[in-house]
Amino acid sequence: MDRYKITMPDGSSTEEPFDSDKQAIACAVDANRGVSKHLVVEKYAADGRLIPTAQAPAKHKGHHKNRSNS
Q1: How far is Cα of residue 55 from the mean position of the Cα atoms in its chain?
Q2: What superkingdom heads the lineage (predicted)?
Q3: Around 32, how many Cα atoms within 13 Å sit in the side-chain half-sphere?
Q4: pLDDT digits over 2-56, tens only?
């Protein structure tokens, strides 16, 4: 398990152990009522540095028409 720091949009933070970046991010999003915007999830490296995790891009909702130039 690795140690992660989760910072919420209001600036509060917590440190928790997780098995993976994906698990840490999912927990943070759940704690923020399903919203990932303005969440920061970082993993502690062995030397104590914080390494940002790669959060998945937001899912785009809506439909775009295919507009070809023909």
Answers
A1: 4
A2: Bacteria
A3: 22
A4: 999 999 999 999 999 999 999 999 999 999 999 999 999 999 999 999 999 987 5
- Phi, psi of 22, deg, nearest 5: -60, -45
* pLDDT of 69 higher than 70: no
Return the domain boundaries, the chain.
2-52
**17-22, Cβ contacts within 8 angstroms, sequence gap of 24 or more:** 21/53, 21/54
pLDDT at 60: 47
Residue carrying the six token digits 């720091």: 5
